[in-house]
Amino acid sequence: MAKPGALSLQPSGPCSNGSTTRRLLTGYEGDGAGPAAPGAELWPDSHGRAVVAVPNDIDVFGLAALGMVIADLTGRLRRVNHEFARLVGRSELELLGMLFNSLTSPVDIDLGNRAMARLLENTDETVSFDKRYLRPDGSVVWAELNIRSLTCANGDVYGFLAQAVDITDRRRAETATRIERQRLDEVQHMAGLGSFEQDPVSGAIFPSGELCRILGLPTSKTVALSTLMGRVHHEDRAALGRALRECLDGGAPVDLVHRLSGTDRTARWVHTRACSMVGEDGQGKVLGTTLDITSRKRAEDALEFHTFHDSLTGLANRALFLSEVDKVLLETGRPAEPVAVLFLDLDEFKTVNDSLGHTAGDRLLRAVAGRLQSVTPAGDVLARLGGDEFALLLRSGSMPQVAQQVAGLIEDAFSLPFNVNGNEVPVSASIGIATSHPLARTSEDLLRDADLAMYLAKQNGKARTEMVRPGLQDQALKRLALISDLHQALANGELEVFYQPIVGAHDRAPVGAESLVRWYHRRRGLVSPVDFVNVAESTGYIVPLGHWVLREACRQLQAWRQAGTVDDQFYVSVNLSPRQLAEPGLVDDVGRALIDFELPARCLVLEVTESTFTLGFDAGLARLQELKLIGLRIALDDYGTGYSSLNRLGRLPIDIVKIDKSFIDRLLVSPEGRALVQSVLDVTHALGKISIAEGVEQAEQCDTLADLGCDHIQGYLFARPMPADEAARVLAQLTACSAPPTGVRPPENAMRH
Ligand code: C2E
Ligand code: MG
Ligand code: MG
User: Fold this and answer.
1) Does the model's pTM come out above 0.85?
2) What is the 8-class DSSP label of residue 244?
3) Per-domain residue ranges for the chain?
4) Which CATH class is domain 178-298?
5) Distance between CA atoms of 1 and 572, rounded to whole angstroms?
6) Alpha-helix residue ranges (DSSP H) falling in 460-527
7) 720 C-alpha vs ligand 3 centroid, how far in Å?
8) CB within 6 Å of ligand 1 — which residues?
9) What are the pLDDT digits (tens) for 333-381?
10) Which fold does the domain 309-469 belong to in CATH?
11) Mutation test residue for ligand 1: of 516, 606, 609, the one with most atoms within 8 Å of CB
């Protein structure tokens, strides 16, 4: 007997006895009205009356709408039906005797062999699989195969019956769907856009591959809602959960920008949108997208930072500072709680920039920002307003005391020099303080007042702090007008050089004269250089102005030399500001003036102040060395007002030390004052330099200085600065009156030899 699972359809198989064709349809026998023809059965017609003679050898195999094949154990086709022949694109006749595998697409032969092996191992089994047939025209068709073994009555397998359903269309549709899905995945990936559906009952999420990637989850078909929520930033979790619930329950669309988990810096930003819709099954469900907007958000944040911060130092910029001040003014508008703004401007920063270069300047500004930050009270705002200007908003504590304390801390913080590219750069700052009450109402007012106070600090000598006070604005306006007028002064011929004679301390004979510029303002009259030289320095106008003074002084000296007013050794000194020293063309200008006015270099002295040497001003120093090489002498002006210690004097490239008036003023006042001048003179002479006392007004001062060994004297005692023609007369008088020293020690370093 055949096993119950194995089909015993055996019309012409090797086990057939040739006599039996089983009745396929039974149950109607006896119902019919007439005798059945031989080989036919009787069936009722559609009305249940007539009798239809149905042949009992219906060729089911041949008529079947699915392909059917019987193959022997060697895999040769023994019987095929029409549908199978259609499927594989050959005629039934042609197929008989062909090997089953010869029809199969080479790529699926192994698959077929493995299935057959399984079937042979367990004849009970039916194997099903999909495979491809290769048609003679080269086209491929897909079939879903179902194969079972055929057994004889004794149970021996003699062949296989295969049923093949043409699934080519389905497969194509599936492939198209898969490609579509892949494309969608790729597009989603490119767009950083994930999509999902939410199951209304379980709440589970069916995520797209891209959503899994965005969430940092392995790709999977479904994700529990709790897993998804676990990937959402803890601060945003409740909002997203609420939005999804409201969408599912009430259909409210979700439109939420939120973070995914991570620290604030690593958290990713996404934009989740969702809406509810009714699925094919009639159930409501949530359909949504999640867009990765991290890079956009970071770009927005960076843009916002850039808009409100200074890119060099990372500090708040002017716009942010003003808005912070406005905010606090609105909060603390009450008179009892004034706030303060400190406006800080570095002194001589331009010189550093010009001499060390802009990169070094930038480095210095960053270092300055660091030190300012270290003294800024927590919670207060420090900003860089631009260039070398900084501002500080102080919000708590009683003002202006707290502001003054902080200004003191800033001065302390700047007491050590900065190291920029290996150069020690001492930096000081001028600071202005304004408080919100009662002068300033808006942030602009407050900042402007602090700015004015800062200018006052600059005018009063720099490296100091000034408070805003009434009337300051008028002064500032005057100063602005002064700047604009000054720029016309040269062209309008309003400038003149005055000369102040310098005499030998012992014989009182003139040795030289200092050139000092004067400005006759058409409305204000004579303006002191104290009032406009600093201004010219800060605007850069000192460069053309100084150039003019230099050439004018050289011209005048040559005129005096030619007129016999002065002798061959007589010199003029010209004041040189740090800004002029930063000019690369200075040495050429000086050389050109000497040539144009036919002067020996020894007749020109350039006066520089100590600040020239305290700024890590290498380019300036190199320029001074060059000037010395062509024979000029350099005088250190106002010695004693800056930082230079006596030890340092020896290291500076100078020939003359001009002792500041403040020392001379103390000379006769106390033994200490005298001792101080004495030690400056001693060191100057020990270093082989010449000494000049400035601002000598009294004969007694002059005598004492001569006793102490001072070489030359300059001061009102002998002559005030005066126009050239007047100076010529005074010089002639001084020469005439000068007496050879009697009984007095001759000066050791006299410039006359
Ligand atoms: P300075 O170079 O130290 O010039 C000496 C200043 O002291 C002059 O002031 C002079 O008039 C004043 N002086 C001289 N003897 C006496 C005295 O016995 N008593 C008193 N009380 N003062 C005395 P001045 O002319 O007002 O110039 C002030 C400063 O302006 C100069 O100081 C110098 O730093 C600057 N300056 C003047 N002309 C020029 C210039 O052409 N270029 C540059 N860069 N600076 C200049
Ligand atoms: Mg001078
Ligand atoms: Mg001086």
Assistant:
1) no
2) H
3) 20-166, 178-298, 309-469, 496-744
4) alpha beta
5) 139
6) 472-489
7) 13
8) 500, 516-517, 528-530, 533, 542, 546, 549, 575, 577, 607, 637-638, 695-697, 714-716, 721
9) 554 578 899 999 998 888 788 778 889 999 999 999 999 999 999 989 9
10) Alpha-Beta Plaits (3.30.70)
11) 516
